[in-house]
Design a protein that fits this description.
There is one protein chain. The protein is an all-alpha fold and 160 residues long. Helix 2 packs antiparallel against helix 3, helix 4 runs antiparallel to helix 5 and helix 5 packs antiparallel against helix 6. The longest helix is centred in the last third of the chain and has 39 residues. The protein is elongated and about 55 Å long. 36% of the residues are buried.
């Protein structure tokens, strides 16, 4: 597989990660489709193993999201800016502390956004709790699953 095809697959995965944060965009499906496309062109053992593992992770991820309480966005101060901060925080946390850093990074991103918006620690903590109850948990689970798949893909591409 050429460099441009790897860049395109990575771009679709990045679009999928952003799609998790945007309502109506099928983020996990885009990540899975990019892995499928890459594996179909790579035709190696690690590529097929990653495709099977990505399929399993994203299916389990969808079941967990389905079992969580429904998103209650009405009345919660979940802004697009908070979603961007949460996504960037999760990505930074995932890179700094591999895999498990995505969770505190996500919550920390929401807190930083709310702290800047509201100005104090107490209101920012209350707003962060409200945002996590409203939609944050399901978005975090979905984003974490997609980050696992993308991280494994980067590991296989750089290791191979």
């Amino acid at each position: 597989m050429g460099v441009w095809q790897l860049v395109m697959a990575g771009g679709v995965m990045l679009l999928g990660l952003l799609g998790v944060l945007l309502p109506g965009v099928p983020g996990p499906w885009l990540v899975w489709a990019a892995v499928l496309w890459w594996a179909m062109h790579e035709l190696s053992g690690p590529a097929w193993t990653l495709l099977v593992a990505a399929t399993a992770v994203l299916l389990v991820n969808q079941v967990v999201v389905w079992l969580l309480p429904p998103r209650r966005l009405k009345g919660a101060a979940v802004t697009p800016r908070a979603a961007v901060y949460a996504g960037v925080g999760a990505l930074v946390g995932f890179v700094v502390v591999p895999v498990v850093g995505a969770v505190p990074g996500f919550i920390g991103g929401i807190y930083v956004c709310e702290r800047r918006r509201l100005g104090g620690h107490g209101p920012a903590m209350a707003s962060t709790r409200s945002a996590m109850r409203a939609a944050g948990t399901s978005v975090l689970v979905e984003l974490f699953g997609c980050l696992l798949v993308v991280g494994a893909w980067v590991f296989v591409v750089l290791g191979g």
